Amino acid sequence: MEKFKNYINGEWVDPKSGEYFPNISPANHEDIIGDFPDSNQEDVNDAVAAAKAAFKLWKNMPAPKRGDIIKKAGDIFTARKKELGRIMTREMGKPTFETEGDVQEAIDTAYYAASETRRMFGFTAPSEMDAKTNMTFRTPIGVCGIITAWNFPVAVPSWKILPGLAAGNTIVYKPSKESPHSGIVFAEILEEAGLPKGVFNLVLGKGSMGNMIVEHPDVNLIGFTGSTDIGTKIGEVCGRMNKKVSLEMGGKNAQIVLDDANLELAVDGALWGAFGTTGQRCTATSRVIVEKGVYDKFIEMIAERATKLRLGDGLDPKTEVGPVIHTKSLENCINYSKIALDEGARLVCGGEPATEGDLAKGSFFKPTIFADVTRKMRLFQEEVFGPILSITKADNYEHAVELQNDCDYGLSSSIYTKNVNLAFRAMREIEAGITYINAPTIGAEAHMPFGGVKFTGNGHREGGWTVFDIFTEWKTVYVDFSDRLQRAQIDNYDE
């Protein structure tokens, strides 16, 4: 069994604890990928100390020079795209056509972040005083602790790590214990790109290790993607310790389908939104709200397609839907199906594990659709994080938007209609950070902001130019060349 190591201060090192945990493929529980470090506080301390020391030099490197290194990382991600896609699929399950897309997001983000190192513009403004200049510029924050989930094990960390590095920060990264191998390759790529020692550090471990990073006094910022429960606790700690924090948490995204929609297109979108990544996305379409005129027809069409989706190991090119991440997730899907039935929802298809043939070796759950779901049901309100779709009937556009907004989350949203007036109303009236017109509730392109409202996050936006609002602080500078004391408002408006 291969034993992997942490990456601290430019060296691959064993965990101080001497402890390891196995990484098990969700498609085949007999497939053990390797043993990965179960790190402790000493490992975290070493990583943070390395990042703190490296910050002094890295922040002063000209930003375009930092960009050159990040651009090279993008080139290496490109060269290793298919290899990394297979590594990701083996450890977290989704088919290789999805994981290669995951790597492409990192490639896009690398090139975007590299180019932005030449566009970290500040502002100048006229002074109210004579012979005085006012200006602002961005400054890095320091050591950033990055903690991410397993479902996008390269794309999501790239959204945080690469802009964070471009801005001049240093990184201590903890990937999910469910996808540590992807984190190993991420570190290999940054090392090969020429990142100086200590600028990026990888510390592997289980969930409790994340607390050690969050609570470390020399970590200045936390970037987190994961569940709302954990994110809320992280926010509490960061508030107490006065750390900057960016939280990307849960979702319960809805796709609205109006009577005038292209139903074939709407079904295509709902299938991909609900069952892509086996429903294990914060942007997954977990609710479809259908206007009453096409309600029955839509259910008939999507059920016919969903029952034909091919489940299997994501390494098989014929697979369309992979496993859920582990047996606990499988049990969660079983539990929510039972809850939906107990509360009166109508099971259209699925609702149980898939155990035929080789599927019995892994954590597979059949693509599941419940109809006649009402807003009071738990399946309408709570994030499942699995291949379960609820369908709810709406009387009209206004009712559909009311149902869409009746939720604690607000990440991605979608409406299918040919009515341009209603499409523009939806852009204004839907409560979500992202709205798609005639497309599913997927994520964002690398150069556009990504994030949500309500319990989805704490207001920050990853991606695009807005990500630098997370990883930089503004510094205001006044230059007085009058050669005399000017006391601003006191002297400027002296009557």
Please supply descriptive tags for the structure shown above.
495 residues; alpha/beta; Aldehyde Dehydrogenase, Chain A, domain 1; 2 domains; 7-stranded mixed β-sheet; 16 helices; globular
Descriptive report:
There is one protein chain. The chain is of the alpha/beta class and 495 residues long. The chain folds into two domains: 6-249 and 457-476, Aldehyde Dehydrogenase, Chain A, domain 1 (3-Layer(aba) Sandwich); 253-437, Aldehyde Dehydrogenase, Chain A, domain 2 (3-Layer(aba) Sandwich). It is built from 16 helices and 21 strands. The strands form six sheets. It has a seven-stranded mixed β-sheet, sandwiched between helices. The mean pLDDT is 97.
Given as residue ranges, the uncertain stretches (5+ residues, pLDDT < 50) are: none
Radius of gyration: 24 Å
Fourth CATH level, the homologous superfamily of the largest domain: Aldehyde Dehydrogenase, Chain A, domain 1
Number of helices: 16
Task: Note the beta-strand portion.
Answer: 15-25%
Determine the structural class based on helices, strands and strand pairing.
Answer: alpha/beta
Average of the residue pLDDT scores: 97
Question: How far apart lie the N and C ends?
Answer: 82 Å
Q: Summarize the biggest pleated sheet.
A: 7 strands, mixed
> Can you tell me the number of structural domains?
2
Helix content: 25-40%
How are the strands of the biggest sheet laid out side by side?
14-15-16-13-12-18-19
User: Per CATH, which architecture of the largest domain?
Assistant: 3-Layer(aba) Sandwich
What is the third-level CATH name, the topology of the largest domain?
Answer: Aldehyde Dehydrogenase, Chain A, domain 1
Shape: globular
Q: How many strands in all?
A: 21
What is the CATH level 1 assignment of the largest domain? Alpha Beta
